[in-house]
Amino acid sequence: MSFPKHFLWGGATAANQLEGGWQEGGRGPSIDDALPGGKQRLNIVADPNFDWTIDPSKYTYPNHEGIDFFHHYKQDIALFAEMGFKCYRFSIAWSRLFPQGTEENANENGLAFYDDVIDTCLEHHIEPVITLSHYELPLNLAINFGGWKNKELITFFKRFADTVIERWGNKVKYFLTFNEINSAAHFPVLSQGMVGDTPKKAVFQAWHNQFVASAYAVQTARRVNPEIQMGNMILYATSYAYNANPVNQLANLQHNQDFNFFCADVQVRGEYPAYTHRYLAEFGLTEADLDRTPEELALLKEYHVDFLSFSYYMSSATEITGETKDTVAGNLMGGVKNPYLKASDWGWQIDPTGLRIALNELYDRYQVPVFVVENGLGAHDKVEADGRIFDSYRIDYLREHLKAIEGALEDGVPVMGYTPWGCIDLVSASTGEMSKRYGFIYVDLDDEGKGSGARSRKESFAWYQRVIATNGANLSSDDLDY
User: Fold this and answer.
1) What's the fold here for domain 8-469?
2) Which sites are catalytic (predicted)?
3) Active-site choice (180, 319, 374, 433)
4) pTM of the prediction?
C-alpha cells in the first residue's frame, strides 16, 4: 500500500463554525460571533466603520448555533468513528475557556466540555488534533485591546495555551498553534482579530506577536510531554507564473515568499528569512519599525514547530503585466484565472496536481513532516426523495487530491495525514452559509438556520469509509454500499 501504515485519516472542523452554544456554559463572545451571516459578511466587517456590535435586529448570526455540536458531539464523533477516522482535527474556543480572554483562571464548565469531547474521541480510538486558535479570538481582546498587534495578547494566549496543553497534553499528541496564520496578508480580521483600519505595520507586528506566542506554546509542550508534536498551520495556494515572461516569474517567486512561505519560515526555521527586509520595504517599513526583542528572537529560534500543516483548496496564478484581466474567487483571496483549470460552485479553481507540487515545495524547503489538515469541495447538495445524497462530484474531487498525496509520498515526502475540511456540514467561514456544504455527513439546516438538524450519511461517507478501511488502496467509488 502506498499510504503509510499509521497514516492519520480523519476530518477537520472549527469550533466557531459548528459548535453553537455561544452563550452556554459561561462562554463569552468571540470575534466570529460578531460576523453577520450572508455572502457579504467579509465585505461588511472589512469596512473600518463596522462597530462589531452584535445586533440581531440588523443581521443574522448563523455561527451562534452552528450545527449545535455542543449538544450533539457524542453522536457526531460516533459517526466519525463509523467512517473509521484515525484522527479528528478540531479547535478549542478560546472564549469558552476564558470568556473575556483576560481572566486568571479558566472556566470550569468549558474545561469539562472539552474533557468530554477529547475522552469521547479517545473512546472511539480517534486521535484528537487540536488547533489552539482558529479564528476565535475573544471579542473583548479585539475591541478593547486591538487584537494581536497588542503585545499583551502574548500573555493572554500563553495562559490559554498553557491551560490547554497542561490539561490535555498527556492525552493529546498533536497540536496546531494558529490556523491559516498567513491569511492576515489579505484579511487580518479573522486570524489577527484586528478591527477598524489596519495598516501593514500592525499586521507585521501582530504576526511577530503570534510567532512569539506560538513559541511559548511549543515551550510548554516540551515541558509537559516530550511526546507532543506541535505544528503550525498555513493557508497554501500553489502559485504559478501566468506565462514565461521573466517579470511574471520574478513576481511569482516574491508572491510565494511573501504569502506561502513567510510565516512558515519563521515558525519552522525559527528565524526571519533574508527577504524580510524586501517584503517590509514594499510597504515603506523596515525591521526597526517592529517591536522585537533579542529575547523573543532567541525564543523563536529554540522553540520552532515539529511539523508543518496546511490547508489546500486551490492554486493561483501571478500576472502583473496586464496581459489578462480575467479573475476568479478563492479562499480569502482571488486571483488571475488559470485557463487550464475548472472551478467549484463558488469559483475556486480545482487543481489536484497543485497539491502534489505544494507537498514537494514545502518538504523541500523545510525538511519536516507535512500534514494536509484542510482540503475539500464546497458544493450544493441535493437530498433525494428517499433521503439519500449522491455527491459523486465531492468523491471525484477528494479522490484526485488523494492521488496527488499518493504521488507526493512516492516522491519521498513524509505526509502525516489527511483531514478533509468540514467532514460534517457546518457554517461557511467566508459566506456564513450552510448551503456551501463540504461534509460526508449532511446536516438538515438551511442558510437561515431552519431545519431539524438531523444528520444523514452522504454517498461520500460510504466512499471515505472504504478509503480508510483499505488505507487508501481503494479510491474507487464503484459498488459502494450506499
Assistant:
1) TIM Barrel (3.20.20)
2) 374
3) 374
4) 0.97
